[in-house]
């Protein structure tokens, strides 16, 4: 039974083998196909060398370049207050903003004037006394000469026995009396210089008192020293203020400044890279070559132009960065809120500092520099070449190179996967 079943399967199997043999014998042999060379389409740009200007960005808060803290130098009641003296108002240079009661100081000036007039009168009287005493002394000197002559004549008569000793004594007493009067007048004249010196000293002291009183009187008027914007007013009219009491706080509107923290290496490039600085004067000249643009962080369309004015005396203790101070002249110029704001204190701004041109360098897009500083190039044969370059620094999406590329070489911008050296690279601009 089993043998009969096997015999029934033989015809189909034999038929299948016969058909397979016929198909193999009648089929054409496989054709030879040559393998095509691998190629890739990529964007390509030529490497270019050009002078590089360092661009550094930083952030900071705006503050006024100068502040005015008006402090009372005298005591008294506030008798007048400028109607414009309110927070936020702009006050021009030379405008009187407050007046402290000047009555006491006007009286002090008047008293000093009166004291000075008395001393001047005493000095004039002293000059008259000196002149009168001099004239009287001249007369007394004539009397003394006559008395001395008469005394000598009486002595001669006594010596010759013509007159008595009593007459000589009388003449001697008269002569001594005249001598005494003349000497008293000389003593009075000798005291004149010391009396004049005393009066001069008293006049000097009185003039000093008067100058102090006038100075205090001038301090009664509080005047704006420059164009300013009022920040705070600490007193009211009729309020008594003591010497040393704050009156007004205000900011200068002529200049604003911002301090930006700049990394040391970036600041070095901003100053001209490897060029050595020859002292502070050279550094000041370099600072003047740096331009600055200030942008409001909340609204970048609001911009102002500034200048790098100075560097503060110490590095930032935390970031170890250089505190660069940017000055903006006339920050209120062209203000037309809300279209164009004034640059006022406490604005948070971005600073874009642009330094002078430094050495010519090859610059390529930063995206063209791959891992391990490899750059994909399309060589003269149109094939992919991998080359390692030296990147000096990066800014604004560009990589500034110091070595590895020469101007004119074709740099591939795309990231090729896989990047097989030697494969054909077809520029995207020329691909069909």
What do you see in this structure?
It is built from five helices and 23 strands. It is α+β, with helices and mostly antiparallel strands and 432 residues long.
Topology:
Elements lengths: L1 H25 L12 E4 L1 E3 L1 E17 L2 E5 L4 E6 L8 E2 L4 E5 L2 H58 L4 H54 L2 E3 L4 E6 L6 E2 L4 E7 L2 E8 L1 H7 L8 H10 L2 E6 L2 E13 L10 E8 L18 E18 L3 E2 L3 E5 L5 E5 L1 E6 L2 E6 L6 E3 L11 E4 L5
Parallel strand pairs: 1-23
Antiparallel strand pairs: 2-22, 3-12, 3-16, 4-11, 5-7, 5-10, 6-9, 7-8, 9-11, 12-15, 13-14, 13-16, 14-15, 16-21, 17-18, 18-19, 18-22, 20-21
Keywords:
36% helix, 432 residues, rod-shaped, 6-stranded antiparallel beta barrel, single chain
What is shown here, in short?
The chain has 432 residues and is of the alpha+beta class. It is 36% helix and 33% strand. It contains five helices and 23 strands.
Distance between the termini: 74 Å
Q: What is the structural class?
A: alpha+beta
SSE order:
HEEEEEEEHHEEEEEHHEEEEEEEEEEE
* Strand order, largest beta sheet: 3-12-15-14-13-16
Which range best describes the helical content: under 10%, 10-25%, 25-40%, 40-55%, 55-70% or over 70%?
Answer: 25-40%
Low confidence ranges: none
Q: What amount of the residues lies in strands? A: 25-35%
**What does the main sheet amount to?**
6 strands, antiparallel, barrel
Rg estimate, integer Å? 53 Å
Q: How many individual β-strands? A: 23
What general form does the structure show? rod-shaped
Mean of pLDDT: 86
Please, how many helices?
Answer: 5
